[in-house]
């Protein structure tokens, strides 16, 4: 028997829909689902963030998920097959969260390492980004889960992200910023796109007909749906006419019955255009329902998986992204022969730094900290000691591990109340046990709340040491912290704006309290969903205050340390041991949404402590956890250096696998690590000024700039060491006069450990009087697991993309006549071979 929706003819269905139903389909009922029309058996389909795991449909009571490495780490593998497998893994994770759409991958360009979401994007290089995105999308969609490639286009920094106009040349737009999307469209055809918050050419991307219709649909033949970023729809008719199919999240601000009806009556939007958008949307929903009937017509529940296979995969994925930057005198890998007494030092050692912040963050099923990974991975006769050395958090660490409810469950109790017109609380409406002291309330509220409401969070907080602790309360809305019935922090009456909650919250207000080891104190956090009155009246007046746009509260805390003594203790420990592993870097609160990082410098006193421990011990290995670049003024003083990114919940095990040589490092840098901020190409134009971000570095993003102007990087793009050595030989070309060429090269392992090498191919263009970067990555291949003494032949195929540039005078890609250099080597600065391809017949092309 025909299924009422799966077998329906979409054109028929659109005819049967009433106008109010069509309008409701172009918006959403809530944060994560499309609209269902029960009368016509149209089901809702669910979406979820993305990109380093599948969080599920609630920030509030999150069902734990596997946390994969961030995108810079994925790109550092330079391994498209592995990233394809990561796509498959994510599709499985999506389905167990009853989702058939993943809001990923993020495919913007790391124009500056300071970009708040640089960790979420793959690379500074458009070819590497596009190939990684293609592999990710192909893996995901091979299992029927739709990718929503984002953010289309130029969400390359967070400053004034919903307003700023990215001002750039046609060439930069095409050759750098659209390029990864174009490659993904060519090689993987994502089924959905998400628009950027900001503007391009003066028009918001969600209203930008040239981008959505002109480039995406007409030039690239895209036939899936385009959805807005969350609250990134800014009007009714412009967005519908430009080609935006779905406003997210719901309930809609713009696609309401009165507003859309008004646009129809005034003929600002024509019924034909509404039908086009509805048709596209329903076609997409039908495809997703056909591909995943068990999920779309399933029980809607969200589940977690934590299997040995999943753990093994995440561990391998994480280890393969780690980049070995320095290894003086073969200090690494550590073994029982070279180390008897090991010190672990640093602010990240015992912290759960597994991903960047914002919408990419999720509650992990479990976390292996670096400390846990190293202690578990160290040979049994190695003695391991620990000192924190310094703190480097932006907000005090969350406290869920130290909280219990009155019924002795782990976490704290969250009770909801409505407020009546006088501001009096009703009877409790609902309660939940939360295992997180970072409480986000945007995508979930219990039924039956009035427009002003309150929560009370209660629990017993127990610390493991006697002494003073700092507690901190940050809020979007208003909040107070009470400890044992006494007001400890007031972030309610008077507030100082900060960048908490996508830039919509306050700074962290702090208090210091004495704790006795093992003795619990009663904690109460009161939160209300309003902002303080703006009229300067600081009275606790619920009636004159406004509902907060973002809603959330965060309680943090940690032992108060004497910073000088902490450093001294770490230095003293370092002076007594055979080797030190220092774990530092950033945290999800330094790299997140809604703001950019102010500096490349490591937070806290990390630079100072690394320098000091390196003075007393030659065997210091620094492991940096960060999604992008940090400055390393101590780089020449330490013996070993690892860039381990945010590597997901297997972080500690993956790092230990590298440190103890279970895995031979094979990651390569997907971005340049600069010496100084001033060297970064976008340094002079990184902020939005008067609403515009000027991309004045143009084509010279990342290594292209460093090479063109001769600036030495701290570590160049594509760089990474191994525990073995490789040689390359026999570079050969399939044809020397065509753009469709195959390049092959032999890679020999000339060291004594099995290992993997990344062969990189950069193209230099003929001088025809047009500006071109000196070298552009156009191909790469990973030769995996070559045994000592063995040789592997690696092949890289090139096509017209490798020889083209955008010619704005004819609005086309151009391949010009001339001699192109193909440079092959192991990093952007280690190009050992060159062959020439002579293109005899130039041509123009459009499309893909
Ligand atoms: C982010 C998107 C994300 C969305 C939903 C926005 O803040 O920019 O990347 O998918 O939220 O969480």
Automatic annotation (TrEMBL):
<dbReference type="Pfam" id="PF07691">
    <property type="entry name" value="PA14"/>
</dbReference>
<dbReference type="Pfam" id="PF00933">
    <property type="entry name" value="Glyco_hydro_3"/>
</dbReference>
<dbReference type="GO" id="GO:0008422">
    <property type="term" value="F:beta-glucosidase activity"/>
</dbReference>
<dbReference type="InterPro" id="IPR011658">
    <property type="entry name" value="PA14_dom"/>
</dbReference>
<keyword id="KW-0119">Carbohydrate metabolism</keyword>
<dbReference type="InterPro" id="IPR001764">
    <property type="entry name" value="Glyco_hydro_3_N"/>
</dbReference>
<protein>
    <recommendedName>
        <fullName>beta-glucosidase</fullName>
        <ecNumber>3.2.1.21</ecNumber>
    </recommendedName>
</protein>
<comment type="similarity">
    <text>Belongs to the glycosyl hydrolase 3 family.</text>
</comment>
<dbReference type="Pfam" id="PF14310">
    <property type="entry name" value="Fn3-like"/>
</dbReference>
<dbReference type="GO" id="GO:0009251">
    <property type="term" value="P:glucan catabolic process"/>
</dbReference>
<dbReference type="InterPro" id="IPR017853">
    <property type="entry name" value="GH"/>
</dbReference>
<dbReference type="InterPro" id="IPR013783">
    <property type="entry name" value="Ig-like_fold"/>
</dbReference>
<dbReference type="InterPro" id="IPR019800">
    <property type="entry name" value="Glyco_hydro_3_AS"/>
</dbReference>
<keyword id="KW-0326">Glycosidase</keyword>
<keyword id="KW-0624">Polysaccharide degradation</keyword>
<keyword id="KW-0378">Hydrolase</keyword>
<dbReference type="InterPro" id="IPR026891">
    <property type="entry name" value="Fn3-like"/>
</dbReference>
<dbReference type="InterPro" id="IPR036962">
    <property type="entry name" value="Glyco_hydro_3_N_sf"/>
</dbReference>
<dbReference type="Pfam" id="PF01915">
    <property type="entry name" value="Glyco_hydro_3_C"/>
</dbReference>
<dbReference type="InterPro" id="IPR036881">
    <property type="entry name" value="Glyco_hydro_3_C_sf"/>
</dbReference>
<dbReference type="InterPro" id="IPR037524">
    <property type="entry name" value="PA14/GLEYA"/>
</dbReference>
<dbReference type="InterPro" id="IPR002772">
    <property type="entry name" value="Glyco_hydro_3_C"/>
</dbReference>
<comment type="pathway">
    <text>Glycan metabolism; cellulose degradation.</text>
</comment>
<feature type="domain" description="PA14">
    <location>
        <begin position="407"/>
        <end position="571"/>
    </location>
</feature>
<dbReference type="InterPro" id="IPR050288">
    <property type="entry name" value="Cellulose_deg_GH3"/>
</dbReference>
